[in-house]
From TrEMBL:
Protein name per the record: SpoIIE family protein phosphatase
Keywords: Hydrolase
Pfam families per the UniProt record, alphabetical: GAF_2, GAF_3, HATPase_c_2, PAS, SpoIIE
Span of domain PAS: 164-200
PANTHER family per record: STAGE II SPORULATION PROTEIN E, STAGE II SPORULATION PROTEIN E-RELATED
InterPro entries linked: Bact_Sigma-Reg, GAF, HATPase_dom, PAS, PAS_fold, PPM-type_phosphatase-like_dom
Residues in coiled coil: none
Superkingdom of the source species: Bacteria
Amino acid sequence: MGSAVITARAAATFEPVGRSVATARAFVRDTLQGWGYNDVVDDAVVLTSELVTNAVVHAGTAADVLCLRSGDGVRVEVADHYPEREVPLQSNGLDFGSPDRENGRGLLLCAALASRWGVEYSPTRKHVWFQLDLPDRPVGIRSAGPVLPTSLLPVTDQRVRVAVVQIDSTGAISAWNDDAAFVFGHTAEQVTGKQFTDFVAWPHTPGTNTGIADALQLSRWEGSYGIRGADGRTIAVYSSHLRVRDTDGEPSTVCLLVRDDERAVLQSPVRAPVSDASSDNRTADPFEVFIGSPAPDDLDGLLQRTVERARDMLDADAAFLLLATDDETELEVRATTGLPSARQRFARVPVEAGTGRYGSARMPAVHEDLTAVPGAVPLLTDTGMRSVVTVPLKVEGRLTGSLGVAAEGAGRYTNEEALRLQFAADRIALAVESARLGELERLRRGSLSFLVEASDLLAGTLDRDQTLALMAQMTVPTLATWCAVYTIADQSSEPYLSYVLHEDEDLIDGLKALLSKIAPPDPVPTPGARVWAAPSEAGHRAALSTSTRSLQHDAPLSMSTATRTTLATAQAVGGETVVLPLVARNRVIGMLTLGKPSDDHFRQEILELAEDLSRRAALALDNARLYSERMAISQSLQRSLLPPGLPDVPNVEIEVIYRAAGEGNEVGGDFYDVFPISDGAYGFAIGDVCGTGPEAAAVTGLARHALRLLAREGFGGPAVLERLNAAILDEGARSRFLTLLYGELWPQEDGSALLKVVCAGHPLPLRLRQDGSVESAAEPQPLLGVIEDLDLYEQEVVLNPGDVLLCVTDGVTERREGSRMLGDDGLADVLSTCTGLTAGAVASRILRAVERFAAEPASDDMAILAMRVPEPPLV
């Protein structure tokens, strides 16, 4: 301390435990207050807290704290017993590292707050010291304010009159002194018994709901408002309220009022920030003095630094900071110290008055003993804290948050601490709100990108199971730790657990088993997330039951796998669980359930994002359901239009390959059939209805069933097709033209086969002989469904052993790539290479040739019917 004379000293040693930090803060605060150094107490406590933390927590040794008093200031030294740990020396190029590190911030604060500081070494220890100079004030003046010229002193009218008004518990005036009558013009008889609010002109600030009634309910309050005088004018007054009770225990409020220009008589002195003792005499930024310089550039870091500084400033055991939601109806826990932060983070409580609510969030409040008012500060329930002081964070009159500190002992805080904490809150409110808005903007941009990506993924599939999987995978772990999707088939069905996902794959089975044992959430269509407590309660019961059984049956030293799984599942569902309805087309089709691990809560922004996702997911899931139903109907109809199987024709091999174009969502217009007509005779057909879809399917069904019926009635080929043509024309506007190859087959005793064929506008059948030659086996005739009078005839074809008859639809011959088309000649060339192959091998080779002809998938239906008379076995 140079040549300064040391007039007092105090020393103490603190053990290397976390609680020593708070004890050291109390030691320094009590010492400096005892010396009358109230002006530097807060800065000294903050610096001591950081340096002792470095010693007992980070260095892991005991800490020696020495306070030295002199006439112009105080010097505090903090020493540890770990000389091997390096401490950076003070120099022009000093690098403290990141200000957001857990250790090393004490040196940054020393540089920001102390008049002088340094690091000193000895053979057995090292210590950091800092010097805080007292403000340059006249001797004997502590907090009376600066000396002012006479011309600047407040002007009073004759003598200072202090109006004393007493308000009973109903808000009525019970006492009104002579000064009140003089200042406001109302006599005591005129106002006694009337409501005080009848005379008050309260300055309602936009964005707040605080009124005179709220101010009268506080234990102590100071501020400005107006009183309406007898002449109708509003007189601006400065008021100090004190809440008291009489001997019968009835509460009332005593109000001391002076004219507003005489407020110095009543107003509590405002504690000015400590001036910066730097060489350039610049005024320190009050925000940086409280937070430290540089301030964290992220919201979470800023909030955490704020609660730590608030705790240190009031020598508290805990501190917390809550931020208001956009509509200011709820407060959300964002930072705590000295409390189980993992359990409380993002918990929300309503702002309005009532049990379990922050009734005093909009004004400073001091709770001397929480046990006397249970639930006054919901965040501190069951934490052991008793003394609490909370102050609002306001920006332009709008509530943006609440800052509070708490202590384990009762009666630790008074209105003086509330004013000091409010002073700090006013300095940081704007920075916190700016950081909060920045974070909110980043969250909104991220949410928009998330929803765009989610919409693209959900729109990219029409498969129900894949949609369920996408819903869960998009929420875990981005929005929640685990997710369960319930689906509802129809209005009469109960919700069904369709999909479960956890960020830890090992917990999925246990989570699914747990959810399967509890009743699903009610399918309420009300939008928004609602809390569902059943999973957490079920997990708790399962864990308790498992632990009890383990203790009753001579449990081994290590838990069984089943026990560990049960406990892990209980931990996974122990936090907040919310349910969002999946509503599509005004119907609840399911529920999206999101969960957090033990004692964790969802942020409001996350719930809003989940709600947006649930709306998109519900529509995608319902579209997938509709598509699945349509595809199932289409496939069922398609199966009904194709024969159930092929008959065994003696001495003739028959193979059919059918490919419908598309992804199964359309009924093909091509069809085939092979069926017995009578003993020894078989009918076969292959046709192509114009177009696809339901209209084409109707004609396909009509043609296939009519062919069987007419052929079995004994009609020949031409007669069958003529009657089918008439039936198609009878459909009127729904009719479609039809190309059809119909024939009848008679196996012969000599091993050959006789065919009678009618080709009505269809691609001509091709005959492959044993020598490899290919020729048409029929002549073209008019197609069906166009004209009424048809003159059809049938042609006979004999298939000798080894011959093949190939029948195809135009999806084969019209296969294209660019300007090239396979055509009849290309098909004949492929067929000519099939000599000696079975009917099945012939059909497969034709299909491969068609598929390889073009790179793009086929756009038309294809049917291939191959019939072959096998060669007799060699003897």
